[in-house]
Amino acid sequence: MTAIRPQSPPAGPRSAGGDVTHTVSVTQSALLNPDPPAKKAKRARQHIPQTQPRLKMGLPAYSQLVLIGVAMGVSSLVYLRFFSGLGFLISTLTAAAVGVLIGAVAAIRRWSLLVTAGVGVLAFLLVAIFAVFRGTLNRGIPTGTTLQSLGTSVISGWVKMLSVNLPADPSGELEFTPALICFLGGIVAASLVLRTKYLLAPVLAPVLAFMIALPITAPRSVGGMIPVGVLLAVVLLVTLIRAGTSDPMARTINAKAVWGRFLFGLPVVVVAIAAGLAGMQFVPLADGDNRFDLRDVVEPPLNIDDLINPLATLKTQLRKPDADMFTVKLSGDTEGIDRIRTVALDTFDGAMWSSQDQFLLAGSTLPQDESLVNPRRVTLNVQVNGLQGQYLPQIGAPVSVKGAPRVGYSKDSGILATDQLPNGWNYELVTEVGRKTGLDKSVPYSVSNRYTQLPRDDPRMPDVILAKGTELAANVSEPYAKLMAIQKYMQGFPYSLDTRPGHSYDAISRLFGPNINEQVGYAEQFASAFAVLARTQGFPTRVAVGYLLNKDRRKGDTYEVKSGDAHAWAEVNLAGYGWVAFEPTDPKRHPANAPKPKDTETPADENRPEENSTASQPAEDPNLPRLGEGALTVLDWALFVLIGLGALAVLTPIAIAIEKFRRRRQRRSGSRAARIIGAWQQATDRLIEHGVPVTASATAQEVSEQAREKIGESGTGSLAVLAPIVTKAVFEPAEPDENIVEEAWQLESQLRRELRKARSPLLTVRAWLDPRPLYARWRDERRRRRAMDKLTRG
Prior knowledge:
Residues 1-20, 585-624 are annotated as: Disordered. There is one protein chain. Helix content is 46%, strand content 10%. The protein has 23 helices and 15 strands.
């Protein structure tokens, strides 16, 4: 037998990551024993680490992912009536799409739960900043408000959703929770599509997201056939596709068999959808009324404390009639509007009237009063000057408000309030007012007994009050006529601010008593007496406190309201008309309407500037710098530098991750030998990230030994198996088999998992963003060129 002479490694440049050569022992064993026993080969194969193959997407998987994304988008349609606009769909649909994408990539690449969670957190932060809180960006750059809103929403985003009136204006803090639900649902649904074979597993996420939205949107949830029908159709289609495909990840499938199963099951899906919608329409489990509302158990963010009863301040304001309150400009159908309401008192305990309203934060759009039929719209432009208290001027049933910084709205009473000082506010209010025609034929309207209750035993209602109410209502039959009879009777009482204050049972009974000297009062007693008398006859009634519009202080469509215009009256809820005002005080006897002598103008009055005239405006100082003019200051340049550094800090890791992803895809292309070498290059990149020195002159075996010394046997077991495979691919003339290519990439994936287990999570995350593998090849090529130049030039 001819002796085999040992061969030296071939000279020449090597590729980055270490070129590999045949060793003498490998060559000799290959030539002396070309046909090794099968048992030895099988035993040797058993030492290869077992890895899970990367999933390959097929048509069934693609179709399921698309349908699951649609299902998550449909689940977000439940919020259509929660928000006043469609802007929230930008955040919810983006979150759902990104969630499905993250879940699919995690399943395909077999990411662990920790890696999936980390990538999911980073992805949702980007979605939250650029989609949810898009309104806080400054030319596409996050601001301090963005970060502050993000932190607030993480802690109390869901609470804010339960603390606003509906419909709410779309805003980042309100869109955060629906977007998070859609994002998490997308990740879970996509993962279940690709990682499980259970038929109904993927549809659990969109159905659960739909169910979570229902209690949040209870007062204004989107019911009906369309959202439920679409969600049911998508869910059943996903189930049908999964049932018709034994392996949802299969790339080569029997198309004829799959289409046959699909077409056979499609009529079943149609019948199931029709049956479900029919059952929902004709045999509902619940009618949807009186749904449980989480807002009833969540403390409202606006705390409106009435330290002083509004009725008790009436006499004080009338005694000092010249204090400025507000100005109001009316536009629209303003016929018959002669008063502005600030507060409505709905509860009477026998001693005083009070309000039990619960105020929730309101956006620009307010919930409409559905009891109004063919109302007319009126617009108020209010400028608050010296108005005291927390209630805001209004009329009718408000439907929108603009310009008020922070407003609370009670959907039960239609009252606006704030927990701030409203002085200086200038807001626009659009409201609906009941029509005037047919009012004499109207009937009472009440959804509860809240506005008809009166204490009868504790304290005991005086018999004279009940008797007077029965007497006034007995002479007429129509409900509206009964109310007019009470109003006419109350207007017959003398008006005097010198009477004793109060509006209790005792104060009212004095009006109806035998002592003529006590049958006198002012708006406080008259409004309370009308409301009590109306309630004894079953009318839903409340006491309203506000201001009359004095025609003597009218300029065009604008009224100037002063403290002397303060007034109280009663309001009755009539079907189709809303809260209708009744005037128990004789208008001719009210101080604001009493005739006054014409004042003689003085020179001082003539020279007094108008409130909105240019003479009352402060003069402009010409020495003050104008905004937007002049050169940039040092602070401006410092801000630009900080923004640039921040953008660099954010974009650099993203660019590194994108480049690594591009290189990985590139290395998986080409010939089979090139793909094996690409797997080795990927493996050496991972070693460089973990601090293993890899040079162009090192062989595969040397790289494997260095990695074992640096990291340990547990973190580099697959590298020892990958080294001879890449050596054979480099030097063997024949192309390797496809299964060898798959094995090489499986070993590369196994190496990444081994490194994650051997190193801490912090080091693993740092390795993802390590830029050293990107310039390692360039550095070695530069060193090689310098060495070659030195050798050739001497």
